[in-house]
Amino acid sequence: MAFWINLAAILIVVICAGLLMRPHQGFAGPKLILRVLGGLVITALESALLLGFITVAVLIVASVVAYIRPEPFESELFRFSPAELMVPALAVLGLTGTTTAWIHRHLVTRFPRLLLTPEETDFAEYIIQWTTIYLTVYQLIFQTLSDAANDVKNATGVQVIVDVALQPDNLNLTILPLLFCIWVAIAIEKLYQTYGLPGEQDAWAIPHAEPTDDGPDAPGTGPTPGA
Q1: Which residues, 6+ apart, have CB-to-CB distance to 166 below 8 Å?
Q2: Which candidate, 83, 85, 90, places its Cα nearest to that of 62?
Q3: C-alpha to C-alpha distance for 190 and 15, rounded to whole angstroms
Q4: Backbone phi and psi for residue 198, each to the nearest 5 degrees, phi listed first
Q5: Average pLDDT taken over every residue of the chain
Q6: 17 vs 116: CA distance, rounded Å
Q7: Are residues 50 and 99 in contact, defined by beta-carbon separation less than 8 angstroms?
Q8: DSSP-assigned letters across all residues of 47-111
Q9: In this structure, what is the dihedral angle of CA atoms 182, 188, 194, 196, given to the nearest 10 degrees?
Q10: pTM of the model
Q11: 8-state DSSP, 2
């Protein structure tokens, strides 16, 4: 039951956001969002496979080196701390991202439907940013929520705002969801202003010169005065 409720909620958000982004084109907006989500899923699968392959390759190389020369791995100097793993992890993620971009570029030449328009690329970036930030603050918000719920039991009326919502420890719980909603609203309005206005939906397309059938007597095509 929970699955269908979540699916219905996602579809409602997709339809509403799509209609707001392209209100003059029927269901072109929701279709655009679904296309972007599908493209992100494909890219995520590419990245996951590459990340797994690169991680396994690094572990194999490290195991071979440790087998050939075990002394450095047994030394106290070779013990890693979490802080020392930050740069190597970033390097692996960066290598995975660049390799994914290279592979995806070649896939697009074989399957042109995978190519995203500038509007779809902009919206994909928004989705990634929203998801990253939401997952980052998710744990913080819901840890704070459990503590705030206990405070609400002992507060009534306006006291809830003063004692719970405005407490320094609960400001993240109060402000972050609000900022997230504002960001979504601004992003949708920006996409609408850029791509959704009548006559602007194809603004990203490169204009092509159309041939004309004007003869030699057409205005501007005759001989110049004094020639």
Answers
A1: 174
A2: 85
A3: 17
A4: -55, 130
A5: 75
A6: 19
A7: yes
A8: HHHHHHHHHHHHHHHHHHHHHH--HHHHSGGG---GGGGHHHHHHHHHHHHHHHHHHHHHHHHH-
A9: -150
A10: 0.65
A11: H
Are 12 and 100 a contacting pair, CB within 8 Å? no
Amino acid identity, position 1: M
**If we measure between CA atoms, which residue out of 33, 28, 43, 42 comes closest to residue 11?**
33
91: which 2 tokens? 């390097």
- What is the DSSP annotation of 184-224? HHHHHHHHIIIIISTTTTTTTSPP-PPP----TTSTT-SPP
Domain ranges of the chain: 117-202
Q: Is 157 helix (H, G, I), strand (E, B) or coil?
A: coil
Report d(CA 181, CA 203) in Å as an integer.
Answer: 28
CB-based contacts of 29-34 (< 8 A; 24+ apart in sequence)? 29/196, 32/119, 32/120, 32/123, 33/123
For the chain, which residues score pLDDT lower than 70?
Answer: 70-83, 139-174, 199-227
| Alpha-carbon 55 to chain mean position | 24
Angle, in degrees to the nearest 10, between helices 118-153 and 28-68: 80
Could you count the other beta carbons within 10 Å of the beta carbon of residue 20? 15
What local confidence, expressed as pLDDT, does residue 66 receive?
Answer: 76
DSSP single-letter state for residue 168: G
Spatial neighbors of 130 by CB under 8 A, at least 6 apart, are 180, 183, 184
Count CA within 13 A, CB hemisphere, residue 27: 7
**How many C-beta atoms lie closer than 10 Å to residue 128's C-beta?**
13
